[in-house]
Amino acid sequence: MNKTLSIASAALAATLFAGIAHAGPVAPQPTKEKCFGISLAGKNDCAAGAGTSCAGTSHSNYQGNSWKYVTKGTCASIKTPKGMGSLTPR
Predict the structure, then answer these.
(1) pTM to 2 decimal places
(2) Cα(first)–Cα(last) distance of the chain, in Å?
(3) C-beta separation of 85 from 35 below 8 A
């Protein structure tokens, strides 16, 4: 019983730590550019507006004020159901 409890506690701690590790901003990537409005809900790299903390906190798909890193020069060519990717928040 104690072994099972210890394993469950370790798994819970690892899960909580992983969630905390993703809450901050993603490290800058010099070969990439920020592309707004292309990420799926919860899959953004950062900047998702009021009520969010950063990476992985966007509330809806293609949220205009959240961004993901993409290869430089490709953002404006990424098509979503809500329009094209943007180098600035929309």
Answers:
(1) 0.68
(2) 54
(3) yes
